[in-house]
Amino acid sequence: MDKAQTDSISETPATPEEERAARHLRMLARTAEIHMEVMEATRTEAVEAPQPGIDYGQRVSVIAKSLRLTLLLEQKFAGQRAERRKAAAKREAAQEDWHALRVKLAVLAASYESSKDAEEVDRRSTEVCERVERPEVAELIEASRAEVAVAALCRRWGFPPDVERWLEMADEALEDLGFLPSEDGEDDEDPPKPGPAAPGRRKPTPPDTG
Fold first, then answer.
1. Which residues of 171-208 are buried (b: 16+ CB within 10 A; e: fewer)?
2. Which pTM was predicted?
């Protein structure tokens, strides 16, 4: 993919989950600031205008304990957010590594779901596998984002243009094959890399199905 396409991927808007996590972190940061403000006000009162019957040491101890818990919670949220970002980046990198195979699987999913019977499934699957190897199709896949390539090929070959669904099915297949880490980041092992492709083309080595 070219630089413009790479930049567009890196500038993908934050998901609702990421926005919610960022909002929670801001709330925790503000809570910690309030604790510090209250502690400073308590110190000032204790030094400059102490009130009778008030145990300022106890008050500061309670505030400090609450502050520690807030900071620990903030640290935990920040760590979880970092892990989600790491998992998302790892998954995106694997999707890029297996770009051509991902597009092919997505189009195969479209052909499968739009076929009426097993015979049509076999015929369409064979046609897709043959067509994606054509130089002009391979170049289209190489030069386009997955969403664009799948949409174009579905239009060209008369498949339903449910691009998001087809790519989700392709990603599920890549996960099952071990080529794509899970979205939750629980898979600690690095996915395999595609084999060397011919010059000018991205053509991952297909999985050995025996």
1. bebbbebebbbeeebebeeebeebeeeeeeebbbeeee
2. 0.52
